[in-house]
Amino acid sequence: MEKMSSVFTKLTLGVALATAVVACNQNKTADKATATVAPAAGSTAAKSEIVYINQDTLLTKYNYVKDMTARLETKGKAAQADLQSRGQAFQREVAEYQKNAATMAADARATTEKHLQSKQQELQAYQQNTGAQVQQDQGAEQVKLYEKIADYVKQYAKDKGYKLVLTYQKGNANMLYGDPSLDVTADVLKGLNDAYAKDKK
Question: Name one Pfam family in it (predicted).
Fold first, then answer.
């Protein structure tokens, strides 16, 4: 369960955003295709039709990600507590058997041992199933996150006239540098958080 805190830094957000490529104004001439578009609100510099989003910032400041993290951590802690409780109950049964084994009849001892072995197998299976469920929940949440961001970025790019939206992440060799004038992170983040706030109401 310790992996829960780090899983969000490994989300496939880069893929989600990088694939949100929008082909707009396809009937433009080749000369117009490289022209810059009107600057976004609050920006004084003209922007190219290719922009990027800082993935690290999005992961730390998008409120949906914060709530998603909290949901998964809550589920993870509940699953961990449940497994711990079941494990402790099993250990008590084992300790009780070990305490009384010397005075038990052979058939009673064999029956108890068989029961404990079966219970141990059940506990191991339950632990595996619980771990699989946690991973499934994580996967489902990641799909929702992907869809939210991809859908928003697609519409955002269409509205702004961008033809390509990339992502930047520290240490990601796919994008070593991007001019700050092409960074639309703050604008996208504000829009995502505003939309999420409306969804929560």
Answer: OmpH
**Helices 185-200 and 106-160, interaxial angle, to 10°?**
120
CB burial readout 129-161, b (16+ within 10 A) else e: ebeeebeeebeebbeebbebbbebbeebbeebe
Q: What is the pLDDT along the chain (201 residues), one digit of tens a residue?
A: 344 333 333 333 333 333 333 333 333 333 333 333 334 444 434 557 999 999 999 999 999 999 999 999 999 999 999 999 999 999 999 999 999 999 999 999 999 999 999 999 999 999 999 999 999 999 999 999 999 999 999 999 999 999 999 998 888 768 888 889 999 999 999 999 999 999 887
Contact 190, 74 (CB under 8 A): no
Q: What is the 3-state secondary structure (H, E, C) of 128-141?
A: HHHHHHHHHHHHHH
Identity of the residue numbered 9: T
- Give this prediction's pTM: 0.68
What is the crossing angle of helices 106-160 and 63-100, to 10°? Answer: 180
Rounded (10°) angle between helices 63-100 and 185-200: 70
Contact 161, 29 (CB under 8 A): no
75 token code pair: 């589920």
